[in-house]
Design a protein that fits this description.
Strand content: 15-25%
Subunit structure: Homodimer.
Shape: elongated
CATH superfamily of the largest domain: Isopropylmalate Dehydrogenase
Number of domains: 2
Main location: cytoplasm
Keywords: Cobalt, Cytoplasm, Magnesium, Metal-binding, NAD, NADP, Oxidoreductase, Pyridoxine biosynthesis, Zinc
CATH topology of the largest domain: Isopropylmalate Dehydrogenase
Bound molecules: nicotinamide-adenine-dinucleotide, 4-hydroxy-L-threonine-5-monophosphate
Radius of gyration: 20 Å
Number of helices: 12
Pathway: Cofactor biosynthesis; pyridoxine 5'-phosphate biosynthesis; pyridoxine 5'-phosphate from D-erythrose 4-phosphate: step 4/5
Number of strands: 12
Structural class: alpha/beta
Cofactor: Zn(2+); Mg(2+); Co(2+)
Helix content: 25-40%
């Protein structure tokens, strides 16, 4: 089996990461999904030698240093490092579609994603909030869970790319129950933790301070945790988010559920930026990603770190059952 790697926003560092990956022999076979000329040109810009093996004509995937298998997906217009162009937004989505289809058909054991620039896809008039939501749509999965792994932590989110103003309304008993069930199940299935201990953050400062600073903890979160504990889940919370992330609490936890994006991710990224992995739980396919964005300022400069990509590939291979190569 093989993995695929989507090259992401063509003006960003995704192409750099693909070129960097090709410089050394790979443990796991991986096919880059991108425009071949983009990868070739970025290699030249980085002054790195690279032989591209066309996946369409040579489906046997190369793992050799200095070469990489590329499944050609054409850019709409030529791309320039660091310069966004909405004309290539559909190209970015074509790559993701190809990857998801390949995973669903069993052609790929999983997909690893380089970063996309959400704003330029939106600027092209295409609604898009993230890979997480896009992949839920294309695989027709009602609910998925974004989780980042890094710095010795696993941090999952009850809501993903939502304006802050909409977050409180999105925290419902139904959504929390489904999210916690997915998180619990995938901890068991993919991370081999028999009875995962999950710390659950409150929504409000000090987890609502007994209802004096918001009542979502009393009305929604606590009843959900009680219901799921009765089913056997090992849950602690709702905990104040500002004191949840301390070493003593984290030492006993297998995962944390934060209520929203910027409650959980800044903590994890402070601990592990550039080495963490974003994984989508609850999908019928395996999907992992780098923990950073498009870094337009660094595209084509040779100053990019590829540690997060390496970690994302290792986790995808593990989740896809490829440990033995
Ligand atoms: N998986 C994804 O597709 C993904 C993840 C996060 C952000 N994004 C998108 O990326 C865009 C830019 O986001 P941002 O500016 O918040 O974050 P960013 O990660 O692109 O950049 C933040 C800072 O980190 C640096 N940086 C990022 N990756 C690096 C690497 N591999 N090596 C060295 N330095 C690196 C950048 O130069 C910049 O200074 C946004 O559109 C955002 O939505 C996409
Ligand atoms: N919040 C995500 C992160 O920090 O990695 C990022 O926006 C990417 O999200 P998607 O994987 O849904 O594109």
């Amino acid at each position: 089996m093989t993995l695929c790697l989507t090259a992401g926003e063509p003006a960003g560092i995704g192409a750099d990461l693909c070129v960097m990956l090709a410089q050394t022999a790979r443990e796991f076979p991986i096919v880059v999904l991108a425009d071949q000329s983009l990868i070739r040109e970025r290699a030249a810009q980085l002054k790195l030698s690279l032989r591209i093996v066309d996946y369409a004509t040579t489906p046997e995937v190369t793992r050799l240093a200095g070469e990489i298998s590329v499944c050609h997906i054409p850019l709409t217009v030529p791309a320039q490092a660091g310069v966004l162009n909405p004309a290539n937004a559909q190209y970015v989505l074509d790559i993701l579609d190809r990857a998801a289809t390949g995973c669903m058909k069993g052609e790929f054991a999983g997909m690893v994603t380089a970063p996309v620039q959400k704003s330029v896809i939106n600027a092209a008039g295409i609604p898009f909030t993230g890979h997480t939501e896009f992949l839920a749509d294309v695989t027709q999965t009602e609910r998925v869970v974004m989780m980042l792994v890094g710095g010795g932590m696993r941090v999952a989110l009850a809501t993903t790319h939502l304006p802050l103003r909409q977050v409180a309304d999105a925290i419902t008993a139904e959504s929390l129950i489904t999210t916690l069930r997915i998180l619990h199940r995938d901890m068991v299935q993919h991370f081999h933790i028999a009875n995962p201990h999950i710390l659950v953050a409150g929504l409000n400062p000090h987890a609502g301070e007994d209802g004096h600073l918001g009542d979502e903890e009393i009305r929604i979160i606590t009843p959900v945790l009680n219901q799921l504990r009765a089913e056997g889940m090992n849950l602690t919370g709702p905990l104040p988010a500002d004191t949840l992330f301390n070493p003593v609490r984290l030492a006993s936890a297998d995962a944390v559920l934060a209520m929203y994006h910027d409650q959980g991710l800044p903590v994890l990224k402070y601990a592990s930026f550039g080495g963490g992995v974003n994984v989508t739980l609850g999908l019928p396919i395996v999907r992992t990603s780098v923990d950073h964005g498009t870094a337009l300022d660094l595209a084509g400069t040779g100053k990019v770190h590829a540690g997060s990509l390496a970690a994302a590939i290792t986790l995808a291979a593990h989740m896809g059952g490829m440990e033995n190569g």
